[in-house]
């Protein structure tokens, strides 16, 4: 699985030990990070007790779309019992279920997480993030600052109307399937099969990768 980040080649960098990179002037106020802490950070996901993998879809077509998507990714990482493991490239897509040109285009991305939260709590967290970014639910296919959808939670299959798993329309949405396939080429949608085959059936019309944009994987 590939994790995408937005580190720029021209930006200053530092090693994982907390020391300046080679060639940088030494800063006496910067102390080395103990190896034990580095190992703990590198293996942070194993500190979660029996974590489950979940896939979430993010979308925004109001305001600063990229900034909002990044804010949602960061908010997920700040959630106790959850670690963001991969963030997809950004896609630009036409709004779903409305007349062409009636709304701004969406920026979409997929996030893969490991979490000890049950599906209901993960749903509550996603809704809290939407509320934090002033998501308004006035119409079903209306524009929104941020949309946080749970696509899959482990292999759970549920027809609970409060949270249907997997997402009942994920198999027909290229803006979910394309970025998901980018971060996990072997991904499967429970009950539907390989994501690669589902995307081939749906096609990529109306979705395009924004190679000039990038979301940061939280550190």
Q: What is this structure, in a nutshell?
A:
The protein is α+β, with helices and mostly antiparallel strands. The chain has helices at 35-42, 65-77, 119-132, 174-183, 195-202, and strands spanning 52-60, 82-87, 91-93, 106-115, 147-153, 188-189, 193-194, 207-209. The longest helix is centred in the middle third of the chain and has 14 residues, at 119-132.
Number of helices: 5
Mean pLDDT: 81
**Rg:** 19 Å
Secondary-structure class? alpha+beta
What share of the residues does DSSP label as strand, in percent? 15-25%
H/E element order: HEHEEEHEHEEHE
* Helix amount: 10-25%
Overview of the molecule:
This protein has 219 residues and is an alpha+beta fold. It is 24% helix and 19% strand. The chain contains 5 helices and 8 strands; from the N terminus they run αβαβββαβαββαβ. Strands 1, 2, 3, 4, 5 and 8 form a 6-stranded antiparallel β-sheet that branches. Strands 6-7 form a two-stranded antiparallel sheet.
Keywords:
six-stranded antiparallel sheet, 219 residues, two-stranded antiparallel ribbon, alpha+beta, globular, 5 helices, single chain
């Amino acid at each position: 699985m590939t994790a995408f980040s937005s580190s720029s080649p021209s930006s200053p960098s530092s090693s994982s030990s907390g020391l300046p990179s080679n060639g940088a002037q030494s800063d006496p106020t910067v102390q080395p990070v103990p190896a034990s802490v580095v190992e703990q950070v590198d293996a942070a996901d194993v500190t979660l007790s029996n974590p489950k993998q979940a896939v979430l879809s993010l979308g925004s077509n109001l305001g600063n779309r990229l900034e909002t998507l990044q804010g949602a990714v960061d908010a997920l990482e700040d959630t106790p019992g959850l670690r963001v493991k991969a963030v997809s490239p950004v896609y630009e897509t036409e709004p779903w279920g409305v007349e062409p040109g009636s709304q701004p285009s969406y920026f979409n991305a997929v996030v893969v997480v490991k979490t000890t939260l049950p599906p209901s709590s993960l749903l509550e967290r996603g809704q809290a993030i939407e509320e934090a970014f002033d998501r308004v639910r006035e119409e079903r296919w209306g524009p929104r600052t941020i949309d946080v959808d749970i696509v899959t939670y482990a292999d759970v299959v549920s027809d609970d109307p409060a949270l249907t798993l997997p997402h009942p329309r994920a198999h027909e949405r290229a803006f979910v399937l394309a970025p998901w396939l980018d971060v996990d080429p072997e991904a499967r949608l429970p009950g539907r099969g390989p994501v690669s085959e589902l995307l081939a059936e749906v096609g990529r019309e109306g979705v395009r990768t924004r190679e000039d944009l990038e979301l940061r994987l939280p550190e």
